[in-house]
């Protein structure tokens, strides 16, 4: 794997910033009808419940924080909240979402490429949503070492990501496969190539155990996996 695709992946999410929420809210090219939307949000709610049950608290770190869809949940639990993302465009949208939600939140934002970022402190709770699938296997161990370096000794990590499901992507995207890469389009038709690894819960749990992590990885029925792990 070259650094070219990682830079293309960063550029894709920068250019996609204003469109990103369409994916989550099943709008535009991601609209597959009301039954699909109801099923999707039912499973989103399951993940939100699991996140609450993981009891995030204290100093919280969110990696690949995006437009704030999960930041807004974490902020309710945090004493301090740090959000890191490589895209200044999504950071700007994140700030807008959190400011419109409540003025009580004080969040430290860091613009950084996570593959080249070094945490300057440790945190009680670390979260990343729909990021692990963009970590190439060649960088999997190094990424989890970064997470380990950022975690307090008694801290824990919660993550959510996508299961392999053709209906989770846009209706005009290239058919999903398990080759480790995906071609993605913006609304204007411009295309990008990104890393996209669809982990299986059991396999991912075993991979993390080999790196010294304990915990569980679960899946919803159709669309998501989520895990809670600790050292």
From TrEMBL:
Keyword terms: Methyltransferase, Transferase
Biological process, per Gene Ontology: methylation
Keyword Transmembrane helix: no
Native source species: Pseudanabaena frigida
Top-rank taxon: Bacteria
GO terms, molecular function: methyltransferase activity
Any matching Pfam family: Methyltransf_25
Domain Methyltransferase: 60-155
Listed PANTHER family: PUTATIVE (AFU_ORTHOLOGUE AFUA_2G14390)-RELATED (PTHR43861:SF3), TRANS-ACONITATE 2-METHYLTRANSFERASE-RELATED (PTHR43861)
Protein name as catalogued: Class I SAM-dependent methyltransferase
């Amino acid at each position: 794997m070259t650094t070219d695709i990682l830079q293309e992946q960063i550029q894709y999410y920068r250019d996609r910033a204003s469109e990103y929420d369409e994916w989550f809210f099943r709008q535009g090219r991601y609209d597959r009808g009301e039954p699909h939307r109801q099923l999707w949000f039912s499973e989103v709610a399951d993940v939100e419940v699991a996140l609450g049950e993981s009891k995030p608290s204290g100093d919280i770190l969110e990696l690949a924080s995006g437009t704030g869809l999960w930041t807004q949940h974490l902020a309710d639990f945090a004493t301090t909240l740090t959000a890191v993302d490589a895209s200044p465009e999504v950071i700007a949208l994140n700030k807008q979402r959190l400011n419109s939600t409540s003025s009580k939140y004080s969040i430290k934002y860091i613009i950084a490429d996570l593959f080249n970022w070094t945490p300057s402190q440790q945190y009680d709770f670390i979260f990343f949503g729909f990021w692990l699938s963009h970590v190439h296997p060649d960088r999997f161990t190094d990424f989890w070492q970064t997470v380990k370096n950022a975690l307090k000794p008694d801290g824990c990590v919660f993550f959510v990501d996508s299961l392999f499901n053709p209906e989770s992507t846009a209706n005009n995207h290239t058919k999903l496969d398990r080759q480790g890469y995906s071609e993605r389009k913006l609304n204007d038709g411009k295309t990008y190539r990104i890393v996209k690894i669809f982990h299986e819960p059991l396999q991912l749990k075993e991979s993390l155990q080999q790196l010294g992590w304990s915990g569980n990885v679960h899946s919803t029925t159709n669309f998501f996996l989520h895990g809670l792990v600790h050292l």
